[in-house]
Amino acid sequence: MTEPAxxxxxxxxxxxxxxxxxxGEHGFKGTTTRMIAEAAHSNIGxxxxxxxxxxxxxxxxxxxxxxxxxxxxxxxxxxQAPSQLAGLDRNEARRLLEGLVRRMMHVFVREQExxxxxxxxxxxxxxxxxxxxxxxxxxxxxxHLTITSLIAVLMxxxxxxxxxxxxxxxxxxxxVFFLIGRTPLLRRLDCGDDYPSDLAExxxxxxxxxxxxxxxxx
Length: 218
Hints:
Number of strands: 0
Distance between the termini: 52 Å
CATH superfamily of the largest domain: Tetracycline Repressor, domain 2
Radius of gyration: 19 Å
CATH class of the largest domain: Mainly Alpha
Pfam families: CecR_C, TetR_N
Keywords: DNA-binding, Transcription, Transcription regulation
Strand content: under 5%
Largest sheet: none
Domain HTH tetR-type: 9-69
InterPro entries: Homeodomain-like_sf, HTH-type_TetR-like_transc_reg, HTH_TetR, Tet_transcr_reg_TetR-rel_C_sf, Tscrpt_reg_YbiH_C
Order of helices and strands: HHHHHHHHHHH
Structural class: mainly alpha
Number of domains: 2
CATH architecture of the largest domain: Orthogonal Bundle
Number of helices: 11
DNA-binding region: 32-51
CATH topology of the largest domain: Tetracycline Repressor, domain 2
């Protein structure tokens, strides 16, 4: 069964969502197929039927997260595609980068879906496995190359320049930390458990001001 067909199947989709939460909470070794099947309200044999085994499900979850990132952030499908951005002028590059930043901020600040990805992705960042290779090759690298290519145009530098790559990494870090560091920020601002709309908009404007600064930077 192909990955799109798996995701459209109700049982397979429930296994992916249940596995995502449990793998994120307990890690790969600490999560059993029985735990996943019970959380998905499915029989234990369904994991073998759809995914082959626990590792197959784990890798399918990584592919699902990567595919969702590419779709929501409107990224190209391959790492080679961002090289086409080199011919843009600075204003067009800034417009595209600001659009990408807004989409990423919306997901990481406002959407529950990103919170479901978080713990599994953080575990893979700390202890990379085959699943990290999938996340990197099918989402992280493409996003990073796209942002790097746009920043290179803004700064009038080559996308291979180390400063440009670090600027891109810093921008991504600023965006993602609104998800990773949401609890201390919301507590610091006495905002409860969710970002209110005005705070989410303010956070977006702060990050966008950093994009504007890149265009002014010599």
